[in-house]
Amino acid sequence: MFDCSLPHSVTMLPALRRPSWRALPDAIARAVRVIVTRRSLPELEPRLLEDIGVTPSEALAEAERAPWDLQPPRRRPMRNPMPKPSGRVLGEIVRKAISRWQTRRKLAEMDTRLLKDIGLSYADAEQEANKPFWQE
Length: 136
What we know:
Blueprint: H1 8-11, H2 13-16, H3 24-40, H4 46-51, H5 56-63, H6 87-109, H7 112-117, H8 122-129
Helix pairs in contact: 6-8
C-alpha cells in the first residue's frame, strides 16, 4: 500500500522556523529584565532572599546564568514536608471555618443597636464580617 503520511521531520517544520521580527522587541525586553533582575539578586539582604525562598549561594548561581537560560534549575524536594493532618484535625479545622463563617454572617446582619450591646462599632463589625472564613 502507498503511505500518504508526511515524515515526522516535515510535521515539525513550524516549530523549527525562525522567530518573527515582530517578536524581537519582546524578546529583547525580556532579556533586559532577566539581566537586570539577575544582577540585583545577589545584592539583596539575606532576609529578603529568605522571603523569596532563595539562599545566598543560589542567588549567586542565578546571577551567573546566561540571559537566554530562562528555565529555572530543578530544586530538590523538601526533606521534611509538613505532615498531613489526620481526620480528627481536619474535621476540627472544618468545624472552626464553618463556625467563623456563620458568626461573621450573623455579625453582618446586626444593626447598630445590637452591635453597641456587644461593644462593637459598625466599622469593627464590618471589618470582621469581611474577613474570609479561613482567617482567624
